Amino acid sequence: MFANLSSGLVAAGAAILLVLVTALYLLKVRRRSIALAGATLWQQALRQVPPRLLGSRWHRPLGWLLSLLLVWLLWLAAAAPQLASGDDGRRHVFYLDASAWMLADAGFDAARQALERDVAALPGAHREVILGEALPALLLAPDERAALLPARLRQARAQPLPSGFQAWLSTVAGGGSHATVVHYYGAGPVYAAARAARPAGVWLQAAFVAAPLDTNRGIVALGAAPAASLRWDAVDVRVGLDAVGAPLPTPDALEITLDGKPLPAGVSVQAAADGLLLKDVPAHGGTMQVALRQGDRFPIDDSAALVLPLRAPLRVALVGELPQAVQDVLALDPSLQVVTLPQAQVQVLALAPGQTPQAGLPTLHLVSATAGTSAFRFTVRDAQAQDALAAHLDALGLDQARNAAIADQLGRAVGIDIVHGNRAQVRVWQELFAADGAFVQSRAMPLFVNRSLHWLAGDAWWAPYAAAGTPLQQDLLLQPLGQSAQVRARALGDRLILPAAGRHTIAGQPLQVSLLDRGITRGVADPAAAGVVVAPMPAAWIRGDLASVLLVVALLLCCTEWLLHLRGHIP
């Protein structure tokens, strides 16, 4: 069998070469000695003895035979013949890890070259190649020519995201009619972790392991949280640092900017055990960038960025006589600002019978329990918003146990309805906010008021922490992100897995994703990686690949033909 060409094409090519070499040999110019009486007889001699004699008798067929063997050897070498013994009957899966582990010291390029060399010399009946990207891609299917692999790998690049090899390996089925052997090309720590958890019936071999670095320093965490000072328009930002074989970076070794400018006055920087804490950073929607002033041989973790939220107080208008508990929440909540009706973004209503609410604003409407509605009734605009809300009612402080306690106190069932309408609205029984009621005395009541009003306003979503290859850390319910068709199509259930490090746009909003992986930062400089035993593939001719052998034989044959020509044995 042949790796690059079919057997029929190889046979047809050999036949064509036979015809071409024979024709060229027959048309070859041959010398003949002729005695002439004088120069005037040249024209007569040329007519009698033509220089090319097609079809004449071969005086020395050895030259033709050597030329034919030479072109046949080169043709067979191009076809890459392989012995049947090279196929051991097992299923061989070659996995090239294209994760952040391979971004150090051109490790990915070296792994790619090793992969191409090994795949080219293995029969393709039970062989396939996988590129370990965010979603593993099949590069070479069984029975496909190995010559296709270099072109498909030409655009492949390692991506700044964690390795998915262990997760992929768990999906590989062992057993069956052919034993499965997985050849891994990547990082030593990834191989060691996967080997300990490999499925039964699957053999795992390290075919290439990137050499560990001597030292590495990096940023392993960057996240924001509500300010401890209770300022609604500010956040606290934590920066996590780590180092292997080198001291931990000091605050002076970091360059921290906000939208490309130094941090504004009023932001305090406090050193922590493994990083920094930045307090009262303005939450104006800017991008914070943290970077090491002096980089190293693994640059992907030398910098990180985070898009901060745009946090402005929500303007709320109060209409009617509201229960004291609701007024207290609105007065004490720093994220809410009570304004007049023309300035409001949302309104809270508690109208007397016969009064009608003012249209045009999303409304939290307190109604009497005798109105014939459920205790909690949410109006949404479409089915997607309904699904998002129904899956996250607990984030509003509503759960079955708490509703049961309220129902026992009121002596009637407490239900939750979600209906469709033209404008978002929340209707809730006013009796639930009685001063001695179970709902008011629970921690769920202020949470319900706060989250309901922000849900009605449709605040712009933001991610407090964005690490590559991990689920998006934010509440899909309380932000419009959960109602985006684009996001829901990419999500796994309620989890949106973030892409590789870089700046992205999700649901129309910017999102800055960073690597932020302590395991990778430490693992690329882990000396234990050098102890991983690499199982080298046998030499090409041992595995049945005869291309290199044929090239050597062709070279020897060419030298032999040249020596015979010098000695006059062949023309």
Task: Describe this structure as you would to a colleague.
The chain is of the alpha/beta class and 571 residues long. It folds into four domains: 7-79, no CATH class; 85-212 and 526-545, von Willebrand factor, type A domain (Rossmann fold), CATH 3.40.50.410; 216-310 and 460-521, no CATH class; 314-457, no CATH class. It has 14 helices and 22 strands. The strands form five sheets. It has a seven-stranded mixed beta sheet with strand order 15-14-16-17-20-18-19. α1 (7-26) runs antiparallel to α3 and α3 packs antiparallel against α14. The longest helix is centred in the N-terminal third of the chain and has 20 residues, at 7-26. The chain is elongated and about 135 Å long. Keywords: Membrane, Transmembrane, Transmembrane helix. The chain crosses the membrane at residues 6-27, 62-84. This is Aerotolerance regulator N-terminal domain-containing protein.
Which structural traits does this protein have?
571 residues, Rossmann fold, 7-stranded mixed sheet, 5-stranded mixed sheet, 14 helices, elongated
User: Which structural class should the secondary elements be placed in?
Assistant: alpha/beta
Low-pLDDT parts are: 476-483, 540-544
How far from one another are the termini? 36 Å
* Main beta sheet: 7 strands, mixed
Keywords: Membrane, Transmembrane, Transmembrane helix
Protein name: Aerotolerance regulator N-terminal domain-containing protein
